[in-house]
Amino acid sequence: MLSCVAMTMMGKMDKAEKIRFLCEDETRVGLKTISGRKITAKGVKPIGQVQWKFQATYIYGVVEPKTGENFFYEFSHLNSQCFEIFLELVSQHFADSILIIQLDNGRFHKAKKLKIPNNIILMFQPPHCPESNPIEQIWQYIKRGLRWKLPASLDELRLLITARLAVMTNDIIASIVGRTHILEALSVVDI
Questions:
Q1: DSSP letter string, 97-142
Q2: What pLDDT is stored for residue 65 in this prediction?
Q3: Is the pLDDT of residue 176 over 60?
Q4: Could you tell me the CATH number of the domain that includes residue 168?
């Protein structure tokens, strides 16, 4: 018996030639200082300036473990309306492909009124295991580059995030998210 994903894919195959596997997630990035390790002499506690501003923005993203191709977009909220818009943007960005997208079980991912584009199939990962989604390491990589930064406004933060994303080539992203077990599974099914 075919799985629901396989049956859905068969119904959509005539519209596109390429099937892609992507990983999707969202992260909040704000003006509150991201602290982290600093190099100091042995026994010397690191000191750094911090700010406690509680303004934030959300970055939605998809990455392809096989190639490192990606798409990121900023939204002011984390909700089903923004997620629906994001899916439409992803659908247009990868218009020539059927997209199987792995994502978590967030409520807004399963909203009843959510309209999913025709070339997208959502594949929900098991609950309470974010480590199974490799895009989580992309967020860590981005935030590591924002440690101890003190942007004065959200616009300044956006510039820092844009600069961080600009240096992340497809090769860098593939090296972060290209887990062996995922790549082997994709090669078995010829994706």
A1: EEEEEEE---GGGG-TTPPPPTTEEEEEPPTT-GGG-THHHHHHHH
A2: 95
A3: yes
A4: 3.30.420.10
What's the predicted TM-score (pTM) here? 0.84
| Bridge pairing between strands 56-63 and 18-30 | antiparallel
Average pLDDT over residues 14-38: 83
For residue 175, the enclosing domain spans: 18-30+50-188
Which residue is it, tokens 């090669």? 187
How many separate domains does the chain show?
Answer: 1
- The answer as to whether 40 is a domain residue is no
In a domain, 41, yes or no: no
Comparing C-alpha atoms, which of 82, 87, 55, 56 is closest to residue 71? 87
Alpha helical stretches, state H, the chain: 4-12, 80-93, 135-144, 154-166, 170-177, 180-188
Q: Which residues lie below 8 Å from residue 115, measured CB to CB, with a gap of 6+?
A: 84
Nearest C-alpha neighbor of 156 from the set 29, 26, 47, 70: 29
Residue 124 belongs to a domain = yes
- Whether residue 63 lies inside any domain: the answer is yes
Q: What mean pLDDT value characterizes the chain? A: 87
133-165 pLDDT, tens per residue? 999 999 999 998 888 888 889 999 999 999 999
